[in-house]
Amino acid sequence: MKYGFARVSTKGQATSGNSLEDQVEKLKDAGCEVVYQEAFTGTKRNRPQFNAVLSKLKNGDTLVVTKLDRFARSTVDGIQTIQELFDKGVKVHILNMGLVEDTPTGRLIFNIMSSFAEFERDMIVERTQEGKSIAKQQSDFREGRPNKFNKKQIEHALVLLNNNSYKQVEQLTGISKSTLIRAKRKQETKALK
Description:
By secondary structure, the chain is α/β, with parallel strands linked by helices. The chain is 53% helix and 12% strand.
């Protein structure tokens, strides 16, 4: 039986064909009868849905993933996992690489590709950290996502809260309840000073 596994790091991830929907579609096109999916970082070994599919696999089954980085981000983890699968008699098919064979050549190619996937991930993390470090040198640096709403819009929404519920103000302004709560707390803290 063919089992598919689709993974994104975050629920909002939808870039370059990596969204859960795209992966599931590709896995079903590849003949997967059951597809496990999750939004969970690939850097952790203990992933609930990945562990679930691993526990289902038995001799003669095939695990199918769209790309190597959906399977494992660490070379060591990838090698260990694939060896466990080979020991159980499970085949591994990575759609953008092909069938990984339990041969010296197949394992070598898998190890090399795993190293490249881990290197790519490490480079992304390094560039992100470098960019953050440069950004922190700016006087107006703020950690996290930028605010969609300016100060006046938030102040207006806080005034609306005097006569309306959070839900009503959220519907009127588009500013989320959590943002309104944070802004209100900040306003109250300022008033106490």
